[in-house]
Amino acid sequence: MISTKKIYHADSSDDFQDWQAELSAAVSDLDTLFTLLDLPKQAHSHTPKQFGLRVPHAFIKKMKKGDIHDPLLRQVLPDGRERMTVDGYSTDPLDENNHNPIKGLLHKYQSRVLLTVTGACAVHCRYCFRQHFDYHANQPSTHEMDEVMDYITKHTEVNEVILSGGDPLSLNNKRLKLWLDKITAIGHIRTVRLHTRLPVVLPNRVDHELIALIRHYQKNIVIVLHINHPNEIDDQLIAKTKQLKDAGATLLNQSVLLASINDDIQTLSKLNQDLFGAGILPYYLHILDKVQGAAHFDIDIHDAVGLYWQLLEALPGYLVPKLVQERPNHPFKTPIDIYQYSNKKMKLMIKNACNL
Ligand SMILES: *Cc1c(COP(=O)(O)O)cnc(C)c1O
Ligand code: SF4
């Protein structure tokens, strides 16, 4: 009985003093997760030591109780299939180790650099392409921050700095401010971008201090959220995105196309319309990176293009994210050629349209 009571208290995010307490109370054992979701315990569940289960209570609350197939649960629930090695799926699918001139800095694309400012994430997404990345070796210390800044200062072709990770919003506001102060002080930097899932999985992270911080800077602040399913968007998130927008941030979203989670036209079209309702514009729809342990989330490229085609038909252009794939050593995220991968029916439609 005592443990049930404890779980009940932890379940209500209002009980937490602040977002950091909520973050450290994230669920990391299957028994607690299943109890919270009214699911029967599983005898042969798989919990890896590295990159184990991690999910904040606020995200669990968005899941449907009693449903093992819930699309939010599937994104975080460890699965025995992760242990299979599948041809073509590797631990460094993007060959990032080759574009790592100094610790914590990736310079793959001409005008922007990506900084891995922390290895920590509030949630462990099972399909994450960075799950094998050596964050420890790649997190700049305060001293190494200066090396990063020197690099950016010398590279005047860079006008945008992306804070990534891990999740940059898992840093506390003080640390985040330190990064933002240094980056925005560089004259040729016009935009700072944050790639984050924290407002989605732990909306309380967007606190007054963070809002004030975003409001403070004169330079463009772009926040790219990571939302894969419309059930991730609720009133609490909408209240937070509104505050972020009011503070002057531009909000975009990237999703990953995931088997049995969002690979149907109803889900995708609702997702992109609901994003707009929350003041967020769709940016990218990623074909899954071929990372070891995630093959069961992958979908056939022809099916992906078939879905995308339906999305183009169903939605206005501004609600259709770009369908892209990251290919090692390409100078940008590669747009998928929807004609190359069309099926016969689509080819026929194109032919007929051209004959009109
Ligand atoms: C995705 C990514 C970027 C940003 O690419 P955009 O197309 O500008 O969104 C920059 N650097 C790295 C290493 C990336 O993976
Ligand atoms: S939040 Fe992003 S970086 Fe963190 S585990 Fe999920 S996909 Fe990976």
User: What's the count of strands?
Assistant: 9
Order of helices and strands: HHHHHEEHEHEHHEHEHEHEEH
Q: What's the oligomerization state?
A: single chain
Which value, in Å, is the CA radius of gyration?
A: 21 Å
Helix content: 25-40%
- The count of helical stretches stands at 13
**Ligand names:** pyridoxal-5'-phosphate, iron/sulfur cluster
Share of β-strand residues: 5-15%
- How would you describe the shape? globular
- List segments where confidence is low: pLDDT < 50 over at least 5 consecutive residues: 1-13
Q: Going across the major beta sheet, what is the strand order?
A: 1-2-3-4-5-6-7-8-9
The pLDDT mean sits at 91
Main beta sheet: 9 strands, mixed
Could you give the distance between the termini?
72 Å
Structural class designation: alpha/beta
What does this structure look like?
It is built from 13 helices and nine strands. The chain has 356 residues and is α/β, with parallel strands linked by helices. It is globular, with a radius of gyration of 21 Å. The longest helix has 14 residues. The protein binds pyridoxal-5'-phosphate (PLP) and iron/sulfur cluster. Pyridoxal-5'-phosphate (PLP) binds next to strand 1 and strand 2.
